[in-house]
Amino acid sequence: MQQVSMLDLRGEYVLFAEELRPVVDDVLSGAAYINGPQVTQLEEALARFCGVGHGVAVSSGTDALLCALMALDIGAGDEVIVPSFTFFATAGVVHRLGARPVFADIDARTFNLDPKSVENAVTPRTRAIIAVHLFGQCADMDAINDVARRHGLRVIEDACQAIGSTYHDRSACSLGDAACLSFYPTKNLGGFGEGGMILTDNAELAGLARRLRNHGEVQRYHHDRVGGNFRLDTLKAAILLVKLQRLEEFNELRRSNAARYDELLKGHEVVTPYVAAGSKHVYHQYSILSDRRDALANYLKERGIGSGVYYPVPLHRQACFADLGYRTGDLPVTEAICERILSLPCHPLLSAGDVAYVAEAVRAFCDSAAAERMEAVGRAG
Ligand SMILES: *Cc1c(COP(=O)(O)O)cnc(C)c1O
Q: Distance between CA 326 and CA 330 in Å, rounded?
């Protein structure tokens, strides 16, 4: 049976293996394992790629978010508005700093923050908004920045899934006060281990994040703030510099897989991803909606096809946030999407045959579901 999985990390390694060997050797023999020149090179390359002035490489996407919030001085008594439909880290970092994550609902088509719900969530204690560019498509940043401007809030882009995407011809990571990237192996720019980066045009913020990344040190063994060890290893930076060379090519491959799915699934009983006007989607995930999501996932599994539910439980319904007092029904769009969402394989190494095989299986599932319904109607009649 044909097998199509959600990821092919080994296949990616094989593509880069030849090029990586001397690069890895170079770092190992150079012995600058921390703060080596490749860390600065990666910061400069990604700042250029995103069209901002500064990059601060850190140990993960989570630490990028944490460090950015620390640099903005978010802490006890503050509220930060976040989507409930996102990876846990977006809200986890807010809680870790003693601040309160306030969950806003999403737009049913893009799955990104609904600016009206954000506006409704603003209180006198609100300090910032974290806008997640979910699945590889930018949130509606003009509307979100407008809310922020009117209420004097800071905006952080959680661009962990969206490197390379654009919003009205402006790059993700250039759309707020600061932005965060993840180089977790499964992300569009995935490294061989953990990694992340803060990007910003604000020199002061970048400088502060740079010090916080290193325990708040201003000069050796002198600390004016408490930071952490959020450094990115030289070896990981060197590997990412190699992988960055093919990021745009890989994003284009994801986009062509998505275009093929759009075409093959049209007219069937699933909702394919909506791309907002002026938005360039980089398909970290290709996520469809189905009223029979779990049955569809099982059907695909029986045919050797992987799929994923991102995310089955909204953050406002997580046990660890129970004391925030949210109830089922508080964020109806988020809750409905969590029940229906399913991501299909869309990684850059899929063949045209793989995409066709997956699409054919989804179509067959929809057709059999429709036939069953007809039969039921026939029996009832
Ligand atoms: C992956 C991810 C993160 C966290 O990044 P890590 O590198 O895994 O710490 C945060 N937010 C979103 C939306 C992500 O997808």
A: 7
